[in-house]
Design a protein that fits this description.
The complex is a heterotrimer of chains A (373), B (153) and C (354).
Chain A: H1 2-8, E1 15-19, E2 31-37, E3 40-47, H2 55-61, H3 64-71, H4 79-94, H5 100-128, H6 133-153, E4 162-163, E5 166-167, H7 175-198, H8 201-207, H9 215-220, H10 225-230, H11 237-240, H12 261-283, E6 304-311, E7 316-323, E8 331-335, H13 337-343, H14 345-349, H15 354-364, H16 368-371
Antiparallel strand pairs in A: 1-2, 2-3, 4-5, 6-7, 7-8
Helix pairs in contact in A: 3-4, 4-5, 5-6, 5-12, 5-15, 6-7, 7-12, 12-15
Chain B: H1 3-13, E1 18-20, E2 27-31, H2 33-45, E3 53-61, E4 66-73, E5 80-87, E6 94-96, H3 105-116, E7 119-121
Parallel strand pairs in B: 2-5, 6-7
Antiparallel strand pairs in B: 1-2, 3-4, 4-5
Chain C: H1 7-16, H2 21-58, H3 74-84, H4 95-113, H5 130-138, H6 141-151, H7 155-186, H8 191-197, H9 203-206, H10 208-225, H11 237-240, H12 250-275, H13 292-314, H14 320-347
The chains are: A alpha+beta (373), B alpha/beta (153), C mainly alpha (354).
């Protein structure tokens, strides 16, 4: 089918190639159909569904506690934040007020997740523009966060630490100390990122003025997260619709106006600094108290519709639940940030070279299971 | 803009729309398929509403109707409205596309077409997004049956 | 200690006692060729190992350390694995060209290796157009890459091959011109002559400012000619998968892979010969022990090889148009001006001689 569409407006100098599903730059099983004239991209058409598991349909079958465990298989790099999104939806629907301790711990873990995701992105971004060393620097710091996660909840990636009604269990006694150690370590290592990649002339040449997205287009395409913010569109859910403990911390929304690949890069680096600052504000005064609120064993949401948005590392994740009052939701829709961000790839890549496409795609920070839900 | 003000304003454009705030944190408005595109254009273009962000577009199978829910937000006024549209035709459901108003709708409508079989008129590239062309049926419909892959408890 | 290392003659003299003169010279040539093949294979394998260890060092890793002491046999094991692998290929590939391509690449690298003066005596082929020969031979390799990419019937490979053609043709100019700049001082293309001139000071000192500029241009263009990062457009794994050798496997892939490392060695060895006095020791400290020349030659070459590895593991890759801009808008004009400056310096006798 794709071939016919591509070929119908095919000029003789153009040819098309399959980038993916197995390709180093697509970071997973994403297939891009590129129509190319020499090296210049004429059209990019994503072909999705290679790992679609129909999580939304599975949710209609499951109870609310079970849904939480499906969500960290979507955007596996923001698993904690995804879990939190579902839990918040259920808690808001049941009008449960979470203890302060839960809110603060969730926020700290969300920010650690964000740093972990951004360090991985940074490493992969470098690799996509040809600097292979960055990958190992990124992973060095990410491993330390994963160690904290492992000690806290036993898992390094798919955490499942949130449950509707709080946290599964209390934090490990070492948590505060290790997090502080990590922050101290990371504050010395983050400038290293700039030295290695940001200041590099070749890197700047590769990214500045590449893949420009204007603010109007960003809004029209529903871009969110660092992609939207790099275009000057203030879209930080943590600022505009604060949840958990974000209403009590002060942080700046990283905003750039250039809208190019380099701006998206800088926004993410800036976000890591902001995350450090958020964690520093919270880590010393985690309130004492319970980590769970009693809920019924079978959670039934009142009849109605619920929408909750959270800011994952990639952007705005929305959970839309329609309940008919039974133990299963009637319909669950996940508005995933990667899906909307992918839809603008064609817009920013056309006219550039193959190398530009790879660089722009790297700063969209696509996680394919997030798109193929 | 408050929900009442929104409701009054929208009523001046298209009369007799069904508004509801029951069981939802946002203002819900249900519109007929014929009026959908006109309402959407007004919501986006009008300076007082200026809903320039379509942050969520979901297909829903309400049994027997099929429908689409649009979550709209204004980045200037920061108010939110939910627009619902339903069609009773399950065999050949068709709605107007809102791609020309919000470009993000292009992918989201393809997803809805893929899973609910709702066709969108004037969509530039309406074809299956996730599933293969040969796939029979629309998996997110409530009456979809798959003996092999669906585990029903 | 005075071991004669003029290998061709030594072997030939030794053989003449056993067989007629004609046969002796043929056997001697074969023997020398075999010696060079072994050097080639060993150098290639250990350069791969070196690269892996250097990369590991840059990347906070340990690197290969399991096979043999300090992992010294790792690349041997890799080569054995590659030999035993199935040779796959695409069905619609142009079989003849597809199979020919790796040999083009490897033979051109091997031929270039023959002219280097590892010591005063250890030089297989002291041709009087040495530099010219090297430039000519090194551009044969690109034909292999072009053929490989073209004939494998894969679009990624084709894009890689075309990029390679564009890149090598462009950067060949800079390599040639920067070497010519130095030839202005030596007045000879023969490598032994060039070394002889450097007994009065390495050329990078003799030619001072223009020589340093020429060296920088040479290193940039040389890195580009070996298709290594930051100029690895040809492979560009994040863009083209594996570029021109996408469809190659087993030993044919290994030929491309080895040739890349040998080419890197060649580029560094040419720089050593032309800029850093080949086998000459600094201040003539080991002049009385001729065979130590090989140590100095390899030492200097490996420092330059390390420099190229350093480039690879720190820099991001350029885009293809930026690559050409760099060559045609910057390196080429700099080079031409530099050549004139060098000519003036030599004419006015402003070179530094010790």
């Amino acid at each position: 089918m794709e071939t016919t569409v591509v070929k119908s407006n095919f000029k003789s100098e153009e040819y098309f190639i399959n980038m993916g599903p197995q390709h180093p730059a697509t970071h997973g099983v994403l297939r891009l159909l590129l129509t190319i004239d020499g090296e210049i991209i004429k059209r990019v058409e994503p072909d999705l569904g290679y790992i679609h598991r129909s999580i939304e349909k599975m949710c209609e079958r499951d109870s609310y506690q079970q849904i939480v465990h499906l969500t960290d298989r979507m955007d596996y790099l923001s698993s904690h934040i995804n879990n939190e999104a579902v839990c918040l939806t259920v808690e808001n629907a049941l009008q449960l007020e979470m203890p302060e301790r839960v809110k603060v711990i969730r926020t700290i873990l969300s920010e650690l997740t964000r740093i972990a995701s951004h360090t991985l992105w940074w490493g992969v971004m470098g690799m996509d523009v040809g600097a292979l060393t960055t990958y190992f620097y990124g992973f060095r710091d990410r491993e330390l966060i994963n160690d904290i996660f492992e000690e806290t909840c036993g898992a390094r990636l798919t955490m499942n630490y949130n449950i509707p009604g709080g946290l599964m269990f209390d934090i490990h006694p070492n948590f505060v100390k290790r997090t502080k150690d990590f922050i101290t370590h990371f504050k010395t290592k983050l400038p290293e990122y700039d030295t290695l990649l940001t200041g590099n002339v070749i890197f700047q040449k590769r990214t500045k003025g590449v893949g420009i997205l204007t603010k109007e287009d960003a809004i029209s395409f529903g871009a969110s997260g660092p992609v939207g913010r790099a275009s000057g569109y203030s879209c930080d859910v943590r600022k505009h619709h604060p949840y958990s403990a974000y209403d009590r911390v002060t942080f700046n929304e990283a905003l750039k106006t250039e809208g190019d690949t380099f701006a998206r890069y800088q926004v993410r680096i800036q976000e890591m600094w902001e995350s450090i600052s958020i964690i520093e504000q919270l880590i010393d005064n985690i309130p004492e108290g319970d980590v769970q609120v009693a809920t019924n064993a079978v959670i039934k949401l009142p009849k109605g519709e619920y929408y909750q948005k959270v800011e994952t590392a990639r952007g705005e994740l929305g959970v839309y639940v329609i309940s008919t009052g039974t133990k299963n939701p009637y319909r669950v829709k996940f508005r995933s940030p990667g899906f909307s961000n992918l839809s603008l790839l064609n817009h920013i890549a056309v006219g550039g070279k193959i190398g530009d496409l790879v660089a722009s795609m790297a700063t969209l920070d696509l996680v394919i299971p997030d798109i193929d839900r | 803009m408050t929900n009442e003000a929104l409701q009054n304003l929208i009523n001046t454009w298209i009369p007799d729309l069904e508004f509801s705030e029951e069981g939802s944190q946002f203002l819900n408005v249900t519109v007929t398929p014929e009026n959908l595109h006109q309402l959407m254009i007004e919501l986006k273009k009008n300076k007082e509403t200026s809903f320039d962000l379509l942050f969520c577009l979901s297909g829903v199978d309400w049994q027997p109707e099929l429908g689409v829910v649009y979550h709209l937000e204004s980045t200037t006024h920061r108010h939110i409205i939910v627009v619902k549209v339903k069609t009773a035709d399950r065999e050949n459901p068709a709605l107007d596309s809102v791609c020309d108003i919000w470009r993000t709708a292009e992918f989201h409508e393809r997803e809805v077409f893929d899973f609910f079989g709702i066709k969108f008129n004037n969509h530039p590239n309406l074809k299956r997004l996730f599933l293969t062309d040969e796939w029979e049926g629309f998996p997110l419909r409530k009456d979809y049956e798959d003996e092999i892959n669906m585990v029903i408890k | 200690m005075n071991i004669s290392l003029n290998i061709t003659e030594t072997i030939q003299e030794w053989l003449i006692g056993m067989m007629p003169e004609g046969a002796a010279s043929i056997v001697a040539m074969v023997a020398v060729a075999l010696i060079y093949l072994i050097i080639f294979a060993v150098a290639g394998l250990y350069l791969v190992l070196l690269e892996r260890r250097v990369a590991a060092w840059f990347q906070l890793r340990i690197g290969p350390n399991r096979v043999g002491p300090l992992g010294l046999l790792q690349t041997m094991a890799d080569a054995l694995k590659l030999v035993s692998k199935e040779l796959t290929g695409t069905i619609k590939a142009d079989k003849f060209l597809y199979n020919l391509a790796p040999y083009f690449v490897i033979v051109s690298s091997l031929m270039a290796l023959a002219v280097f003066p590892f010591t005063k005596e250890f030089q297989a082929f002291d041709i009087n157009i040495g530099i010219f020969f090297l430039i000519a031979i090194s551009s044969v390799g690109v034909i292999g890459i072009l053929l490989g990419g073209w004939s494998s019937n894969n679009k990624f490979a084709l894009i890689g091959a075309m990029r390679s053609g564009v890149q090598t043709i462009s950067y060949e100019l800079s390599v040639g011109l920067s070497l010519l700049t130095m030839v202005v001082i030596t007045g000879s293309l023969q490598l032994s002559e060039i070394v002889e001139v450097q007994k009065q000071g390495w050329l990078i000192l003799q030619g001072h400012v223009p020589a340093i500029i020429a060296f920088m241009v040479y290193m940039i263009a040389g890195t580009a000619e070996t298709n290594r990062a930051p100029f690895d457009m040809v492979e560009a794994e994040s863009e083209l998968g594996a570029g021109f050798h996408t469809e190659y496997s087993g030993m044919k892939f290994a030929y491309f892979f080895l040739a890349e490392f040998i080419n890197m060695f060649i580029i560094a060895a040419v720089a050593t010969t032309v800029f850093f006095g080949a086998w000459l020791s600094p201040f003539g400290i080991t002049e009385s022990i001729p065979w130590l020349g090989a140590f100095w030659f390899l030492g200097k070459t490996l420092v330059l090889v390390f420099l190229m590895m350093w480039f690879r593991w720190t820099f991001p890759r350029l885009r293809v148009d930026q690559l050409l801009t760099l060559e045609w808008k910057y390196l080429l004009p700099i080079n031409l001006v530099n050549l004139v400056i060098m000519a003036i310096i030599v004419w006015l006798n402003l070179t530094i001689k010790f």
